[in-house]
Amino acid sequence: MKSKTIVSILIVILGIAGLVWWGRSAQNRVSANPNSNLSANALQALETLYDFGTISMRNGLVDHVFKVTNSSDKDIYVKKISTSCMCTSAYIESANGKKGPFGMEGMNYVPPANETIKAGESRDIRVVYDPNAHGPAGVGAIDRFIYLTDASGSTLQFEIRAIVTP
C-alpha cells in the first residue's frame, strides 16, 4: 500500500515538473524570433483604444478613425484586416480611396486588404460599430478588436469599447 502511494506521488511530481518544463520551452519559442513583432514596431498608432462611452441603439452606427503610420524605412504590405465580431467593420482609407468593408473572419467573406504602406506614409483605419447588430441582447458593455496583419504575419491590434443602451 505504501509503495503504491509513493509511486502515485512520484508520478504527480514528474507530471508537474514536465508541465513546468513544457511551459518554459514554449515561452522561449515565442520570444526566440526578434522580428516577430516587426509590424507592431514599424506600424505605429498614437491611439489603439477608443471608448465611445455610452451610445444608444436608436442612434444607429458609430465610427472612429485610427491613424496608422509606417515608421520604418521599408514598405509594409498589409495583407488582411479583420474584426472580432460581425457587428464591427473596418475600412482602410488613403488619398487613393477607401477599401473594405473588412469584417469577422469565418462569418462572411473578408476580402484581402492588399495595401502597401510606404515608408513614412500613413493610412486611416475607419472602424464602424453597429449597436443594433445583436438586438436587445446587445445592451451593456462591449469590447471589440480590429486586426491589421502584414505579409510576415505580424499583427497590430485596435480596440473599441462602449456601453450600449436601448
Overview of the structural elements:
It is a single chain. The chain has 2 domains: 1-32; 39-165, Immunoglobulin-like (Sandwich). Strand 9 (140-150) and strand 10 form a beta hairpin. The protein has helices spanning 2-31, 38-42; strands at residues 43-44, 49-56, 62-70, 76-83, 88-94, 97-102, 115-117, 122-129, 140-150, 155-165. The longest helix is centred in the N-terminal third of the chain and has 30 residues, at 2-31. The protein is extended, with a radius of gyration of 22 Å. The strands form 2 sheets. Strands 1-3-8-5-6 form a 5-stranded antiparallel β-sheet. Strands 2-10-9-4-7 form a 5-stranded mixed β-sheet. It has 2 helices and 10 strands; from the N terminus they run H-H-E-E-E-E-E-E-E-E-E-E. The protein is α+β, with helices and mostly antiparallel strands and 166 residues long. Mean pLDDT is 85; it is low at 25-40. The chain is 21% helix and 44% strand. The chain crosses the membrane at residues 6-23. Pfam families: DUF1573 (PF07610). This is DUF1573 domain-containing protein. Keywords: Membrane, Transmembrane, Transmembrane helix.
Distance between the termini: 65 Å
Percent helix range: 10-25%
- What CATH first level of the largest domain would be assigned? Mainly Beta
CATH superfamily of the largest domain: Immunoglobulins
Number of strands: 10
Low-confidence stretches: 25-40
CATH architecture descriptor text of the largest domain: Sandwich
CATH topology of the largest domain: Immunoglobulin-like
Protein name: DUF1573 domain-containing protein
Keywords: Membrane, Transmembrane, Transmembrane helix
Transmembrane segments: 6-23
